[in-house]
Amino acid sequence: MSDQKHDQVPVHAAVKVMLASEDIFFGPGVYQIMKEIDASGSVSEACRITGISYSKAWKILKKCERRLGCKVVIRQAGGAGGGRASLTEEGRELIRLYEIFDRKVHEDAAALYQKIFIEKNLD
Fold first, then answer.
1. What is the pTM (predicted TM-score) of this model?
2. Residue 71 Cα distances to 62, 65, 104, 105, 108, angstroms
3. 83-117 confidence digits (pLDDT tens)
4. Residue 31 and residue 24: Cα distance in Å, rounded?
5. How wide is the angle at C-alpha 18 spanned by C-alphas 57 and 106, nearest 5°?
6. What residues are paired with 79 via a beta bridge?
7. pLDDT per residue over 14-64, tens digit each?
8. Using CA atoms, how far apart are residues 45 and 53, in angstroms rounded to an integer?
9. Half-sphere exposure of 36 (CA within 13 A, CB side)
10. Percent helix, strand, coil in the chain (nearest 5)?
11. Which three-class secondary structure string do you get for 25-56?
């Protein structure tokens, strides 16, 4: 039997950063789809990579756009070679700001975890 103490990953803070108005409209899933659209130029390819159905991807992207009041993805119909998709400037800015916010939230959560759980300073 192995020593469980050596097999365990240390306990740490885990947070999921999401944006909401009436409800949650942006988080890790939408972020990942948008990053993959930006990288591949294809909603279909982004869906394949993320494992999200095409219809669900468009549903959550449209919800995000409604809540923000601007387009985040633009689609160009294609001919024989297929269409293209890309992020708008607003979409790229959303990604940039989310990455900053996500990083800072995780840093702050790690620091608070250290202070509260490790240092046992509960006040």
1. 0.84
2. 8, 5, 26, 26, 31
3. 799 999 999 999 999 999 999 999 999 999 999 98
4. 13
5. 125
6. 82
7. 999 999 999 999 999 999 999 999 999 999 999 999 999 999 999 999 999
8. 11
9. 20
10. 55, 15, 30
11. EECHHHHHHHHHHHHHCCHHHHHHHHCCCHHH
